[in-house]
């Protein structure tokens, strides 16, 4: 039994390129400092004294900056290549994290949150394009899964350490987050120097019927549904943490532990599960079921009395949904793109998440402030199931 399990893990991780491993290691270092975003709403309300509605405004500006950064990052990736865009975004984001932590007035916090997000999110389309460049068709989903494993291992470390640091001083979160960004940039230079792969392919040399992501109607429907899913999903890092603190009175250490459970589960389960599921069914088949699990997780917050044990059970259900959705979303968008427009497809996919990051926390915070968290969890559960129905419709449209 043990040898069979070890063999399964070995097979799940075999066949990936060295560059894919190095890229994932760099992401692990970067995300081990992910502390500001999961604690930003708590920082603004508990430490700075702003209302949940004002915190929602800041998080909306974070999302707005992400939309701008994703668009620019996608365009720049197709023009100058994924390597320089990643390097600039990591260095610039590191500096801006440190600067944001020094801001005291609400307008300056809003301004530098937007600028930080713009620079930071320009990294994502370039990074997604790099994963495609360093992988093969038959290892692409696992390459993204490995990347997400690195992200979530880093998230587990960052959440757990962030909870400890936040209990001492919220300022430490900004310094550590910025430092890991800069460290990741230095590792990128040392471990993955520019190569011929990093140069974008000129559009005129490629004959492909899908010249632009913005003309791909199937992809645009997919993007709309991704926005709806991500709007629900992003509450995991914003208003859900505020609910834990404000309503359930969980301390920062336990909130950090919940985030760590999410990351550890993904690290242990996702690669093996993707290895077993990849190429057996369509990507949308798994996305539909994962979206439904996310909806069930939100409904649990109203159906059950939430103590520490139930909070951990809820995050387990949520994480299983995440594992089924996110790797296969990446598989779907890469399958629609070509070398000359991959940055644009990646940029639009990142924009979808950024729009959700703009609208989701803001609208949800306003609903929570006016109607209470109970109404918010009912709404998110219903929205998740409606989104799953939309993905089912898209699957039928592709099959028909």
Describe what this molecule looks like in 3D.
Helix content is 80%, strand content 0%. About 3% of the residues have low confidence. The protein has two domains: 180 residues, Growth Hormone, Chain: A, CATH 1.20.1250; 187 residues, MFS general substrate transporter like domains (Growth Hormone, Chain: A). It is mainly alpha-helical. Helix 10 packs parallel to helix 15. It contains 16 helices and no strands. The longest helix has 30 residues. The chain starts with a helix and ends with a helix.
Tally of individual helices: 16
CATH class of the largest domain: Mainly Alpha
What is the CATH-assigned architecture of the largest domain?
Up-down Bundle
Low-confidence stretches: 197-209
CATH fold name of the largest domain? Growth Hormone, Chain: A
What would you report as the Rg, rounded to the nearest angstrom?
Answer: 20 Å
Strand content: under 5%
| Percent in helix | over 70%
Task: State the total count of DSSP E strands.
Answer: 0
**Shape descriptor:** globular
CATH superfamily of the largest domain: MFS general substrate transporter like domains
Class by SSE composition: mainly alpha
Organism: Niastella populi
GO molecular function: transmembrane transporter activity
Protein name: MFS transporter
InterPro entries: MFS, MFS_dom, MFS_trans_sf, MFS_Transporters
């Amino acid at each position: 039994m043990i040898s069979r399990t070890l063999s399964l893990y070995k097979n799940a991780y075999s066949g990936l390129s060295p560059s894919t491993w190095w890229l994932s290691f760099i992401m692990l270092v970067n995300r081990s400092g992910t502390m500001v975003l999961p604690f930003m709403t708590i920082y603004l309300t508990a430490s700075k004294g702003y209302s949940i509605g004002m915190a929602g405004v800041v998080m909306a500006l974070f999302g707005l900056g992400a939309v701008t950064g994703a668009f620019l990052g996608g365009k720049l990736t197709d023009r100058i290549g994924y390597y320089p865009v990643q390097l600039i975004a990591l260095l610039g984001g590191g500096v801006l994290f440190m600067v944001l932590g020094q801001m005291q007035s609400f307008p300056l916090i809003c301004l530098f949150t937007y600028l930080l997000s713009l620079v930071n999110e320009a990294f994502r389309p370039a990074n997604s394009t790099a994963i495609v460049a360093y992988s093969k068709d038959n290892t692409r989903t696992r390459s993204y899964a490995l990347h997400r494993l690195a992200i979530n291992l880093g998230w587990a470390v960052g959440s757990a350490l962030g909870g400890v640091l936040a209990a001492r001083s919220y300022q430490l979160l900004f310094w550590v987050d910025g430092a890991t960004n800069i460290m990741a940039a230095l590792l990128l230079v040392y471990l993955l120097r520019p190569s011929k792969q990093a140069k974008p392919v000129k559009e005129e040399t490629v004959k492909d019927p899908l010249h632009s992501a913005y003309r791909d109607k199937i992809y645009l429907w997919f993007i709309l549904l991704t926005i709806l899913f991500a709007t629900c999903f992003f509450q995991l890092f914003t208003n859900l943490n505020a609910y834990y603190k404000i309503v359930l009175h969980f301390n920062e250490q336990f909130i950090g532990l919940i985030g760590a459970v999410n990351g550890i589960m993904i690290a242990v389960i996702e690669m093996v599960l993707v290895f077993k599921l990849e190429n057996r069914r369509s990507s949308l088949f798994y996305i539909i079921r994962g979206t439904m699990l996310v909806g069930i997780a939100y409904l649990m917050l109203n159906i059950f009395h939430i103590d520490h044990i139930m909070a951990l059970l809820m995050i387990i259900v949520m994480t299983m949904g995440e594992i089924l959705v996110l790797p296969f979303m990446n598989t779907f968008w890469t399958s629609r793109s070509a070398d000359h427009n991959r940055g644009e497809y990646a940029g639009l996919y990142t924009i979808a998440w950024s729009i959700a990051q703009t609208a989701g926390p803001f609208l949800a915070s306003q609903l929570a402030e006016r109607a209470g968290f109970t109404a918010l969890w009912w709404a998110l559960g219903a929205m998740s199931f409606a989104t799953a129905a939309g993905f089912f419709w898209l699957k039928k449209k592709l099959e028909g």
